[in-house]
Every structure is written in C-alpha cells, then in structure tokens.
Amino acid sequence: MTNIAFIGLGNMGGPMAANLLKSGMQVTVFDLVEASVNALVEQGAKAATSAVDAVADAEVVVTMLPAAAHVKSLYLGDNGIIEASRDDVLFIDSSTIDADSARVVGKAVEQAGRLFVDAPVSGGVAGAKAGTLTFIMGGSVDGVAKATPVLQCMGKNLFHAGDTGAGQIAKICNNMLLAVLMSGTSEALQLAIDNGLDPKVMSDIMLQSSGCNWTLQKYNPCPGVMEDVPSSNDYQGGFMVKLMNKDLNLAMNAAANSESSTPMAAAAQGLYKLHQRNGNGDKDFSSIFTLFAKD
Ligand code: NAD
C-alpha cells in the first residue's frame, strides 16, 4: 500500500484523493479549507494539520492547487514541503501552471535529490469523480515510471509529453482549443435558437455532423440540453471562468514567447475576460453561453 500525501482538495483534488482511497492507497490530506479535509476523512483519509505535516511520511506527494503562486509558495516558500519530505519521495504537481514555474519547482525538487513530475489533467470534475482523467506528464523517465501506478488510480489515459514543463505546455494547448470550442459551440447554439430551433435538436444534429466536438459530447453549454453538467445546475461546480482565464493567459504568454500565431484563442480570451468582468468568474466556463443569449 503506497503512502500518499494529497494537498489541495478542491473541485478536482477532492474526488481525485477519493479515488486513491478507493484503490486502497493510504492517503493523508491537507487543504486550507477544513470542511474539504473533513469530507475526505469521512472516506478514510488521515487528516494532516499542515502541508509539512502531510508530506512527512509520504512516498508520493500529489499537489492540486489553483495557480503557480500557490504551487511556488507551497514548494519554495518558508516551511516548504521539499525539505520536510522523505529523501526517496516523488512529487507530482497536477495543478495547471506555466511551464517555467513547473521547471523552477522541478529544479528545486531535483536539487534536493527528490523526483518531480508535472502532471496536469484534462477531463474536468466529471473525469476526476469517475477516475477517467487524462494525465499529461513532464519529467524524467524514473519520475514518470514511479508516478504511473499512482496516476492510474485517478485516470484512464496517461501521456509522457517530454521533460519537466512539457506536461504544462501540452495542457495549455489543449485548454486554449477548449476555450475556442466552447465559445464557438455557444454562438452556434444561440444562432440556432434565435432562428427558431430547439437547442437539443440542434445539438443532436451537430453531434452527428462535422461540427461535433467534446463540448457537445460531454459538456453542452445550453441549460436543459444535457443532464448532470454545470449548464443544467446554474453553472455551479465544474471548471471556473477565472481558471479558464488563467489558462488562456498562460497560453497567450507561451505563444508570445514562441512567436506563435493564435488569433482564435485571442478572440476567445477577449470573450472570457469580458465574461469575468461581468461578474461570472466563479461560474463554470460553459456559462460563456449566456454572453450570447438574449435576455
Ligand atoms: P479549486 O479552487 O476548486 O481547488 C483548489 C484547492 O486548493 C482549494 O480547495 C484551496 O483551498 C486549496 N489550496 C490553495 N492553496 C493551498 C495551500 N497552500 N495548501 C493547501 N491547500 C491549498 O480548483 P480546482 O478546480 O480543483 O482546480 C485545481 C487545478 O486544476 C487548477 O490549476 C485548475 O486550473 C486545474 N484544473 C481544473 C479543472 C476543473 O474542471 N476544475 C480541470 C482541469 C484542470
């Protein structure tokens, strides 16, 4: 039984840690929100009083935090978790952050003689709950080999994209496309509605036509078309608009660095920024549909 520390028990981390428990792992958990820790303790986890306390005996540490600032502060700040960990530990950071920050953290971990893998995920909260996430890893062959059996408890598809930071690059490319697809699907559905079509019928047509994409298959943005998705729950839960904006910023910064042309993502970023300014930062990202809807 592997002894795992899991830090960051939010929309994604909570169900991911629960799947580790279901696979028979021994899991010690920590989050700044006590209720999130308690929810995992009810499922069999051990509560830690701090991040440093959580990692003390762990063979593998998984972190799932909002953004790079949180990750850097946890690993590199005062009372950082690197020094507090075992010599033979593997750190897996599954947060979505910029590749440079992942490399800085990875280097600090490796300089301390430990292993580090960046392993951001795709698949959303539903994938986290079902244990069907896609993990995109960046790091050494040794790190990836040690991470694989742990990540298989939480995911279905595992990829090794390249060296440290490569997982993050692959992840932001994917999410950049997702923002474009969600915006485009929303405007197509609203155009259909404005011209008298039923959005469910329109969705069924596109699902069997060349416009078919993941947002129609798994995450329809129009309320009432699909059950058990955020659009049918007042856009609560899921992947917050402010996190999509974070990812779009990461993608656009990466594009600026590599002088890549990303005009579709620039349009989607403009829409998501406006949507957040209108007070929708904490809603699920499929709520971009409401930007196109008539009052
Ligand atoms: P979230 O805000 O729901 O959860 C983050 C958790 O981290 C919170 O519970 C917070 O209290 C905790 N936290 C922050 N700083 C901490 C610290 N120092 N110590 C302990 N806990 C701390 O976010 P989320 O939706 O779970 O997303 C987490 C990461 O996964 C983000 O980087 C996001 O971009 C990425 N992601 C999210 C989704 C999604 O659908 N929600 C999908 C793929 C990737």
Tally of individual domains: 2
What small molecules does this complex bind?
nicotinamide-adenine-dinucleotide
Distance between the termini: 55 Å
CATH fold assignment of the largest domain: Rossmann fold
CATH C-level class of the largest domain: Alpha Beta
Q: Helix segment count?
A: 13
Strand residue percentage: 5-15%
Order of helices and strands: EHEHEHEHEHEEHEHEHHHHHH
Structural description of this entry:
There is one protein chain. The chain has helices at 13-22, 34-41, 51-55, 68-76, 99-111, 124-130, 141-151, 166-194, 199-207, 214-218, 241-258, 263-280, 289-292; strands at residues 3-7, 26-30, 46-47, 60-63, 90-93, 115-118, 121-122, 133-139, 155-162. Helix 1 (13-22) runs parallel beside helix 6 (124-130) and helix 4 (68-76) runs parallel beside helix 5. The protein has 2 domains: 3-163, Rossmann fold, CATH 3.40.50; 169-292, N-(1-d-carboxylethyl)-l-norvaline Dehydrogenase, domain 2 (Orthogonal Bundle), CATH 1.10.1040. It is of the alpha/beta class and 295 residues long. The model has no long low-confidence stretch (mean pLDDT 97). Strand 4, helix 4 (68-76) and strand 5 form a beta-alpha-beta unit. Strands 1, 2, 3, 4, 5, 6, 7, 8 and 9 form a 9-stranded mixed sheet that branches. The site of nicotinamide-adenine-dinucleotide has 26 residues, from helix 4 and helix 6.
